[in-house]
Amino acid sequence: MAKKVFPDGTEVAGFYVRTIKSGPFVFVSGTTSLNAKGQVQGKDAAQQTTITMRKIEAGLKSAGARLGDLVRTTIYVTDIRDMGAVSAALGKALKGSVVTSTLVAVSALAVPGLLVEIEATAVVDV
């Protein structure tokens, strides 16, 4: 099955892109609140989640999908106590859509100051 790639310019390594579409599936790489200069945006986990979901939404849009097409998220947080704030921000971003989801606490993310990273999968009509 052919795949189309949709980089967003914030990828830090040449072997991956933000978004790939293959058939009806759209996969969004682990996404954080880093801006194009590699700076952390958002002072807390809720703000970082909101910013991250905007980036995911843009990645989905580039591949012809929308947040309502999401079927799965995997969320990594550096502090499990942020689970409620992250879940609330994710729910607000999804605007009533539902997804399957896993939230995992990790000891650190790639850049100091990052509190949240989210992977996402969507399914769209071909």
TrEMBL record:
Domain of life assignment: Bacteria
SUPFAM superfamilies given in the database record: YjgF-like (SSF55298)
Gene3D superfamilies, per the entry: RutC-like
PANTHER family assigned to the protein according to its UniProt record, in alphabetical order: BLR7761 PROTEIN, YJGH FAMILY PROTEIN
Protein name as annotated: RidA family protein
Source species: Reyranella humidisoli
